[in-house]
Structures are given as structure tokens and as C-alpha cells.
């Protein structure tokens, strides 16, 4: 049956503003926004606390053994008007952004069993459409039939600067050179992993936002959305 509302997949490199962009379009359309990276981060936090992930490496056997202990869900926060990520009932929205999690997350998320678990959860969240999900494999693996697929990119230096400023603003520890190193290293692992590597879907539209404001990105997106709605007879 045709969905009334679209599934919109936003994939791309680390720190190129995928979540801010996806959040903004979800708000504009009245769709649900899901940050799939937050789910991988929450699982990584669990395994970091249990010392099964450290210094950028992950103990696959231990992680697979304990994967059923990890429950990730989102809870609406009235104050911020966004979903908070919860790990086994604990609000971890802030902790999952810390650099220790950023350093371990690629190692944990390349484990096939971890991906399988997250993809199952993500498909369930999107089964009725009306969702904007951002990540690395949303248009290629999670929702290959998504009506709109966007692949975002920006230069590594610009991405590092944005991420650095974001951390400073949140009063979190930050150093520009190590943020840049972490970003390029995560890109490398995300692109080269065996299961669901970061790749542009053949039918995705590229958005290079290196020199675009959020308003320009919204105008760019609404053109695509309106055209798609017309093509599909859903406007
Ligand atoms: O979007 P982010 O930077 O918060 O994502 C954190 C990590 O999670 C990223 O380095 C790779 C992984 N990830 C993934 O493998 N697949 C996704 N769909 C989303 C994120």
C-alpha cells in the first residue's frame, strides 16, 4: 500500500550537519525525526562503560554476547522539543556526544550483529512513513525504498570547525586538531567497513553544504520535496 507520508533518508559524512538539517525538515513537514547515529552511540556508551570498547577498538565476542542487554529508545523532551536518547531507560542524550564515545563508535558500529539489531529497530520506527532519519546507511540499507534520499557532504576542515564550535558551545572538552583527526578517521572506517559502508545510494541527491546557510538548505530541500509530492500525486 502506498504510504501517505514519505520516508526521507539523510546520509553522509560525520559532522556535516545531517542532524540539524534532518531535524529542521522534520519540523517543517511535521514528520518524526530519528537520529540513527544516536542509537549506535548509545550502544557504544553501554560497551564503553563495560570496557568492551576502548581506545577505538571493540571486543566483538563480548559485545555480541551482551547485545541483548542493550535497549535504545527515544523519549520526547518537552523542554527542548526534541527526542532524547535513552539507554536502558537512562537519558544519555548528553553523554553519547562525549569524545570517548566518538572514538569508540565506529569500531562498535561495524559489528554486523550490532547493525542488524539497530536496523530492525529503525525499520520499525519508519514503517508508517512520515519520518526523517539521518545516518550512514539509511538510503542504501535501512530504507532502500525511501521516497527522498539525500547524501550530505562538506569539506573535512569545515566539518571539524563546526563540530568544534558545537562542543565549545555545549561547554564540552574540545581541541580542533583532534576533532579533525576523529572526523577523518571515522570517515575512513565508515566508508571501508564490510557491512553497510557509508555510500551514496544511486538515487540519492547530493547536498554539499560547505558554503550554504540553514535557510538555503531548506529552500533547496523544499524544491525537491514539492517536486516529489507533485510527481507522486501526494500534494
Ligand atoms: O551521526 P553520528 O556521527 O552521530 O554517528 C556516530 C557513528 O555511528 C558514526 O561514526 C558511524 C555510526 N553510524 C552508522 O554506522 N550507521 C548509521 N546509520 C548511523 C551512524
Structural class: alpha/beta
| Strand portion | 15-25%
Order of helices and strands: EHEHEEHEEEHHEHEHHEH
CATH architecture, by name, is 3-Layer(aba) Sandwich
Task: Count every helix, treating DSSP H or I runs of 4 or more residues as helices.
Answer: 9
Describe the largest sheet: 5 strands, parallel
The parts where pLDDT drops under 50 for at least 5 residues are none
If you had to describe this structure to a student in words, what would you say it looks like?
The structure is a single chain. The chain has 235 residues and is of the alpha/beta class. It has a single domain (7-234), classed as Rossmann fold. It is built from nine helices and ten strands. The strands form three sheets. The protein has a five-stranded parallel β-sheet. Helix 1 crosses helix 9 and helix 7 (156-169) crosses helix 8. The protein binds 2'-deoxycytidine-5'-monophosphate.
Question: Features of this protein?
Answer:
single chain, 235 residues, alpha/beta, Rossmann fold, 48% helix, 18% strand, binds 2'-deoxycytidine-5'-monophosphate
Helix/strand layout:
Layout (H helix, E strand, L loop, with lengths): L6 E6 L5 H12 L2 E4 H14 L3 E2 L2 E2 L1 H7 L5 E6 L4 E6 L2 E2 L7 H11 L2 H14 L5 E5 L2 H5 L5 E6 L2 H14 L6 H17 L12 E4 L5 H18 L4
Parallel strand pairs: 1-8, 1-9, 2-8, 9-10
Antiparallel strand pairs: 3-4, 5-6, 6-7
Bound molecules: 2'-deoxycytidine-5'-monophosphate.
The site of 2'-deoxycytidine-5'-monophosphate (DC) has 14 residues, from helix 2, helix 4 and helix 8.
